Amino acid sequence: MGDQGGDGGAASFDSLVGLLDYPMFVVTTMADGHRSGCLVGFTSQTSINPPRFLVGLSRRNHTFAVAQDAEYLAVHLLPREELALAELFGEKTGDTEDKFAECAWHSGPQGMPILDAAPAWFVGHVIDRFDLGDHVGHLIEPVAGNAPDELGDLITFSDVRDLEPGHNA
Ligand SMILES: Cc1cc2nc3c(=O)[nH]c(=O)nc-3n(C[C@H](O)[C@H](O)[C@H](O)COP(=O)(O)O)c2cc1C
């Protein structure tokens, strides 16, 4: 039986969002020569013209701390076969580990770290930040990127929901 109201709103919302499935991304950034990145599910395109995309970063994440001083974020789509990359960026924290020592990457537009295993990615200029609750929304305007004509299946929430996040939100 579903919950009909009362104080079960949060619980039923929890159950409801557990039924959703959506693409996962690795979001990287750099500020003051320091690189960071994490697995992110809280995203959305928010506008076509002008192009805009929102990235929700948890206040607890190392990536959030670095992003506070960053002008750009890089958003990577994750092909289904790159589950190990999703685990690396979703389960380890830059507080204690250098994730970039454990994967192939190169310096891309605006000095953003671009993951070699991700064929589709874009770099966005952070044009606004919003309090979203335990996450902070970073509104970005794409300035560069790469999108192949075709891409196979992507990693979605249902593929990674059982990972142990480096930080709980
Ligand atoms: C399924 C799943 C979804 C996640 N979604 C987000 C998200 O939307 N935003 C975020 O900041 N962290 C999210 N995380 C958590 C971070 O990826 C994780 O805590 C990571 O270890 C943080 O690394 P950092 O401390 O180096 O930034 C998610 C983790 C998992 C497993």
Automatic annotation (TrEMBL):
The UniProt record lists the keyword Membrane: no
The enzyme's E.C. designation: 1.5.1.36
Family: Belongs to the non-flavoprotein flavin reductase family.
Organism: Mycolicibacterium aurum
GO molecular function: flavin reductase (NADH) activity; FMN binding; riboflavin reductase (NADPH) activity
Name of protein: Flavin reductase domain-containing protein
Keyword Oxidoreductase: yes
Organism superkingdom: Bacteria
Keywords: Oxidoreductase
Gene that this sequence comes from: hpaC
Top enzyme category: oxidoreductase
Flavin reductase like domain boundaries: 17-164
Listed SMART domains: Flavin_Reduct (SM00903)
Pfam families: Flavin_Reduct
